[in-house]
Amino acid sequence: MMAKPGISEVSDPSAVAKANELKKELQRLIRAIVEDDDEFVVQTIDRAGETLLDLKNLKLKRSLSLKFVNSISCPDEFRCPLSKELMRDPVIVSTGQTYDRPFILKWLKAGNRTCPQTQQVLSHTILTPNHLIREMILKWCKNQGVELSDSVVYINDEGLTEADRDHFLTLLEKMSSSLSEQKEAAKELRLLTKRMPSFRALFGESLDAIPQLLTPLSQSNSNREVHPEVQEDVITTLLNLSIHDNNKKLVAETPLVIPLLMDALRSGTIETRSNAAAALFTLSALDSNKALIGKAGALKPLVDLLEEGHPLAMKDVGSAIFNLCIIHENKARAVRDGAVRVILEKIVDRMLVDELLAILAMLSCHQKAVEELGELGAVACLISLIRESSCARTKENCIAILYTICLNDRTKWKELREEENACGTISQLAQNGTSRAKRKASGILERLNRTINLTHTA
Question: Which residues form the U-box domain (predicted)?
């Protein structure tokens, strides 16, 4: 029996390649129209219109072909639960349900973390090919006298082809090869994951992808020192991957990732160290990752890097420490690792004041942190910041920390009262600050007045 017309176009590699070629040509023409202002721009616009029409016709042709295939009465288990169409690349998610790859990828890229059928939370976003269903679909198509190509070729919403997937796998293989190939592959993976979100998503489709990426760094622990360029490119690729929401859990829970990021905080180029801090910041968007990173001991190297005070790394390090200290157990770890002293020293030097004050305000709920602040002379520093800063948030954090010190250390009341008598700094804030700042300033003034009254009564 002859193959029914229209089936081969569904997965025809030439049709896919043609669509990809037309898209690239259209992008080139549009860029030329936007950037050029010469007399030939009208011709370029005409050519862009023709290319757009060609692309539309090709899409319509493929759409009609798909409709023809799916008008055939095929078993329900061969249809994707999302598209209701015959699956061409069936894959299994962590709950055991099967979907057509492009449609479940679209679901995941929209930020969904549940199985569409069961509504269970996915433990990971790795997609495993369902070879059994694939073979059954091919056999059914053959029995029906229709042709469905063995090689599944498609372009997803971001223009990723099977050729791109093959190239991705080749790059990962090179990470276990010679140093020259490692350098070449690491550099390209860094650039691809920066420019193309689709390549970030690819790392979530295989349990081996991230360990393969890390091979040069993990090998260095036993055999040789890691090459600085390779380390920088691999760490930066991890940062790029962590930007992709669906990757955050997978990246952080890959056993070698956090220890290697901690190693990178201590060594390598300043760009490597800064990007390692940025990766920890991005990964710590998830509360489960905050606990994992803190438990691994990452706060100590972050505090050490903050103490070095390199301008390129300061902001990323501060952001990472702030994010991690949102959960209570990491506050205690940060205090134990010397964060209070280091942060106060940087604030005294007027480095990254607003960001570091926000961390100090969070840590001030910890008893040991308050004691250290008193011992380190924080009161004078905070008062001077309130006087000189024009930032309402900075003033608010300063007075909040002062309020905590005032509650826990009566020996500081004299210093605060002398300041108030001389400059009236706290009274001014009680009148002109944010609602929270007014409340804290008024609370300090009440306590100061109470101690004055008690002294006069005595």
Answer: 73-147
